[in-house]
Protein: Ferric uptake regulation protein
Organism: Thalassotalea marina
Amino acid sequence: MNLEKLIEQAKQQCIRREARFTPTREQVFRLLAEKQGAIGAYDLLDELKKTDPAAKPATIYRALDFLSQQGFVHKIESINAFVMCHHFGDCNHPVQLLICDECGHVDEIQSNDFYKSLKEMAVNKGFSISHQIIEAHGRCNNCRE
């Protein structure tokens, strides 16, 4: 998707939600959107410092928290990194990530059947799921060749 179109889409989402898409948040969004795969917060900070030398770790973490809350990015807990969500119209959608341990490529897949089964199993245990991200590690097609 075109970067400017993606940014405009994010801005419109923020307007509808009455959330502030500040210049710093936009810049971090832009950096994530330009990145193929996942990136760590400190690597993002290094990139941000190229345009904002005063940026601090708190700057990047606040922006990432905001972007995550808006459903624009997903945090990959197992590798402590972030990845862009390119279909952020539904910020509460179930998330399944395929993470290549060799090249770092991340594919987001969405299986409502998987989520339905998980939710059903949770309900049977008396558990209520508020948020779901499933991470699967392995090797992508390019690295298996």
Remarks:
- The first strand starts at residue 73 and ends at 76.
- DSSP finds six helices and five strands in the chain.
